[in-house]
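User: Hey, quick favor. My workstation is busy. Could you predict this chain's structure for me?
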Amino acid sequence: MNEKLEKLNRELAKGEARLRRAQHEEKILEHQMKQLTRKERTHRLCTRGAMLESFLTRPEVLTDDDVMDILKQAFSKTGVIEAVAESVKRRVAGKSLME
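Assistant: No problem, here it is.
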């Protein structure tokens, strides 16, 4: 009886150790996912910022407020708003089909 109890306690300890290891690995993977997401976002921002600058004349002399005013004017146009909405709609629909 005593041996059986000791064996069960050893198995319990091993199971708890495996659980702690798995939880630790899960935290590591979650952190890696956040890092990848952050890197992807940074890459996207840099790429799109470069795209925007390619349309601006002498972007180095414009302030952030100047660029924001330009974007507000550009994106207030009905055609642009509709084009953005259509692009988003196409991409969202395309993702739904892939899943």
